[in-house]
Amino acid sequence: MARAAAETRTETWSRYGLWVFSALVLIFLIAPILVIMPLSFNSEPYFSYPMPGLSWRWYEDFFTSERWTSALEMSIIVASLATCASTVLGTLAALGLSRANFPGKALVMSVLISPMIVPVIITAVAMFFFFSVVGVLNTTLGLVMAHTVLATPFVVITVTATLSGYDHGLTRAAASMGATPIHTFRKVTLPLILPGIVSGSLFAFVTSFDEVVVVLFIASPEQRTLPKQMFSGIREMISPTITAAATLLILFAVTMLTTVELLRRRSARLRGIKP
């Protein structure tokens, strides 16, 4: 009994130690973000502490300056179009891969998620040469196509994960009652996998919205997305407006991740899994 109690105390201390270590790692990772965010409210155009005062001037500059608003508009347009395309393509691919008799499933899945594995600089160079051949380099269509390639794997993974707990007997039951495949998908399959589709869409949107390396290779000088504008601003003229833009992107990413977690829990409840 004493040995068992000692082992229990050891396990308890080990668990607490793991929590403390994880918390320290998390603090180490987010500390640069926590340091930069207050500087977006600095009243002076310097990146230094202590701040002489607080001001909203950099946020005002972000929402009133043409170079920032046009970059934000371009990012929203490209990310929205890429999200729509990647959601459709990724969902169709996940539905096909979910079939038990799909030939070469592992190979196809490897090809689909390769943009997540291959370094983005290699992908950017490959897209540059390919798009220059097909004639879509320095065009909005080229940007959307490139971002669709980068975002589709996230949709494939999230929808495939959702379909792993899907009961295909429901599809067969609907078909036995005379429902067409399209009607079965709309009324049976889609409502159950919708949280996964929306989660994948959110990941796809964030991936497209934050992409900068591919944009630097295939976009024209006039095509400035928000990350490209921030990158150019750091190289050309450092302005605290960049910290305001970064803060807004961080808040946007946190909101997206929170939404994804809520959707995951809803999907788990629909499938009868305790979150």
**Number of contiguous helices:** 12
CATH hierarchy, class of the largest domain? Mainly Alpha
State the shape: globular
Indicate how many domains the architecture comprises: 2
Radius of gyration: 23 Å
* CATH-derived topology of the largest domain: MetI-like fold
What separation lies between the terminal Cα atoms?
34 Å
Given as residue ranges, the uncertain stretches (5+ residues, pLDDT < 50) are 1-6
Largest sheet: none
How many E strands? 0
Helix fraction? Answer: over 70%
**What is the structural class?**
mainly alpha
| CATH architecture annotation name of the largest domain | Orthogonal Bundle
Calculate the mean pLDDT score and round it. Answer: 82
| Portion in beta strands | under 5%
Helix-strand string: HHHHHHHHHHHH
CATH superfamily of the largest domain: MetI-like
